[in-house]
Design brief:
- With 451 residues, the protein is an alpha/beta fold.
- It is built from 19 helices and 18 strands.
- The strands form 5 sheets. A 7-stranded mixed beta sheet has the order 5-13-12-11-10-6-9, sandwiched between helices. Strands 2-14-15-18-17 form a 5-stranded mixed beta sheet. A two-stranded parallel sheet has the order 1-16.
- Helix 3 packs across helix 4 (53-68), helix 5 (94-104) packs antiparallel against helix 14 and helix 6 (124-134) packs parallel to helix 14 (320-332).
- The longest helix has 21 residues, at 25-45.
- The radius of gyration is 27 Å and the shape is globular.
Length: 451
């Protein structure tokens, strides 16, 4: 085909192949033009290129399908990473999902008190729940934790100074760094101490009339070991009270429960931060809390009210969908069975015996000499938490006698893709992160592949 033989836009618009897609004519025209622009570019570089009208129509259909298919799809996570950032971090419970559907498909009492028929704050109930669970005086919530930190710091006063230990001037993920966030907030960072050692005197010696806060950043995704000294919130609180300078504690992953109950290393809880003397504590809700994406800020009433009255807080506020999910997630923590109703803790708490039983059931229903049971594998928490912690797990794997890349591509191209990991030249599916309800889906698709 040469440039002169390229089908016209009008010829393609009347094609019966596109009428079934029910796309508005003016938008279909835009899609067609994009494909024809690409064809012209190809032919200008190579006029001998063989491009048929049927191929052009097929590519236009692919463009339509890629735009009209749902962007997000359900993934079966066999990676063994419980809080997989690329897979959306914390999965929600079915009960919460059902309630959310009722809320978002109808009108709701987002900012109205039904009893008094007066307007109220969308954060009133969330604040009460967080106050009860954490012991803080007041709470507010933003779209994400990085944004929550920017708004919090900005509310302290433009051009003022905040003290940060050099060991805590870290990159928090996605390429974002604490110094950059502080700069965005309008504050000036004052680095104190050294990378491996910081003392209370380092804070005290760097206080000036412009100091508006001590920022403590929890190092949840890495550790410094050896010749070190780190100042705890409790140690810093005495100086904070003496100088009337607030401690802002970015706790990051923000667990609400004692992680040692789940055979995990101690991780400071949000309540610990409050009890130890932090004036403001910030944390994410889509990590160890097991909820939606949001940044939660709790602390002293006067400071939270100051944050809420800062103009940027409205632009950064949480939307009704995530607010509703967060509310229901927090309600689970009021009950004794939170470790069963919150998927993150349920996955962490799965026993080896239960995983072995599932593995045996799967192996019994798929072709012999394909997958084998693996009891020597490890799951990780993920989400920038517990960097040195691994959980004994059970999975199924297939060795290099099979074409691993071909099998992996097959799984990735399913209507609900199955994600695994390559380990020691084997394709591995870690059952800890695959919900039991999808075992039959897994069995069915393995059988189809080896049919």
């Amino acid at each position: 085909m040469n440039l002169k033989k390229i089908p016209s836009v009008n010829d393609l618009l009347i094609s019966k192949k596109f009428s079934k897609k029910n796309i508005r004519r003016e938008l279909l025209k835009n899609i067609i033009n994009k494909e024809l622009d690409l064809v012209r570019k190809i032919l200008k570089n190579d006029d001998s290129a063989n491009i048929s009208k049927a191929e052009i129509e097929s590519n236009i259909l692919l463009r339509i399908d890629s735009l009209t298919n749902s962007y997000l799809k359900k993934i079966i996570n066999g990676s063994g990473v419980i809080l997989h950032t690329n897979l959306g971090r914390a999965p929600l419970s079915k009960a919460i999902s059902k309630n959310i559907y009722d809320v978002i498909s109808n009108y709701s009492d987002l900012e109205i008190d039904i009893t008094t028929k007066t307007r109220n704050s969308r954060l009133d109930n969330i604040s009460q729940l967080l106050n009860l669970i954490t012991g803080a005086e007041k709470a507010t919530v933003f779209n994400n934790n990085a944004l929550a930190l920017i708004v919090t710091l900005a509310s302290l006063g433009k051009g003022k100074e905040i003290l940060v230990s050099r060991s805590e001037s870290i990159e928090i993920g996605g390429g974002f760094r604490i110094p950059e966030i502080i700069k965005l907030s309008g504050l000036k960072i004052v680095d104190i101490g050294t990378t491996n050692k910081t003392y209370v005197r380092d804070y005290e010696e760097n206080i000036t009339k412009n100091t508006v806060g001590f920022l403590k950043v929890h190092k949840s995704n890495y550790k410094i070991k050896g010749f070190t000294n780190e100042i705890s919130i409790k140690e810093l609180s005495e100086l904070s009270k003496q100088k009337n300078i607030p401690i802002i504690h970015d706790l990051g992953s923000g667990t609400l429960v004692n992680t040692e109950k789940f055979n995990l290393p101690y991780e400071p809880t949000v309540g610990d931060s409050v009890n130890d003397g932090a004036d403001i504590t910030l944390f994410s809700s889509d990590k160890l809390l097991g909820g939606p994406q949001s940044g939660i800020v709790i602390g002293k009433k006067n400071l939270i009210e100051k944050i809420n009255s800062y103009p940027l807080s409205r632009a950064a506020r949480i939307d009704k969908l995530n607010l509703s999910i967060l509310n229901d997630s927090l309600i689970n923590y009021l009950k004794n069975d939170y470790h069963e109703t919150i998927p993150v803790w349920n996955l962490i708490n799965l026993t080896q015996d239960s995983l072995k039983k599932r593995a045996n059931d799967i192996i019994d229903k798929i072709p012999r000499d394909t997958f084998r049971i693996r009891e020597d594998i490890m799951s990780t928490i993920g989400g920038g938490t517990f960097p040195d912690t691994f959980i004994d797990s059970v999975g199924i794997s297939i060795g290099k006698t099979h074409k691993i890349s071909k099998l992996e591509n097959y799984f990735l191209n399913l209507s609900n893709p199955i994600i695994g990991r390559i380990e020691n030249d084997e394709f591995l599916l870690d059952l800890r992160t695959i919900f039991e309800e999808y075992d039959n889906y897994l069995i069915s698709n393995i059988n189809k592949y080896f049919k």
